[in-house]
Specification:
By secondary structure, the protein is α+β, with helices and mostly antiparallel strands. The protein has a domain of 39 residues: YefM-like domain (YefM-like fold). The chain contains 4 helices and 3 strands, in the order E-H-H-E-E-H-H. It has a 3-stranded mixed sheet. A hairpin with a 2-residue loop joins strand 2 and strand 3. The longest helix is centred in the middle third of the chain and has 29 residues. The radius of gyration is 25 Å and the shape is elongated.
Length: 97
């Protein structure tokens, strides 16, 4: 659980807060009017968060690619439909050699 502190108090105690985060392993949430404003986390925590975000984004991207690829196997649109919607080209999947 994170330690919460108002921004005015955090400003006065910044050096102490940094030490708590770096050496105490704490996470500090700075609030303004009782609402979370920013969080102080260690550089290691930030690195782990960025790695998790990258993995999550890659998984989401793979899911989109998979979904779009499966659309290619659907029945092709009628030639008149392509003209009607101003589509100049149609993607065709790889052909068997």
């Amino acid at each position: 659980m994170a330690y919460e502190i108002p921004v005015t108090q955090a400003r006065a105690e910044l050096a102490d807060l940094i030490n708590r985060v770096v050496y105490g392993g704490e996470r500090v949430v700075v609030t303004r009017h009782g609402k979370p404003l920013v969080a102080l986390v260690s550089a290691d925590d930030l690195r782990r968060l960025e790695e998790l975000t990258a993995v999550s984004e890659a998984a989401a991207e793979e899911q989109v690619i998979s979904s779009v690829s499966s659309l290619g196997s659907a029945t092709p649109s009628a030639p008149g439909e392509r003209q009607r919607f101003g589509i100049a080209a149609e993607h065709r999947g790889p052909t068997a050699s």
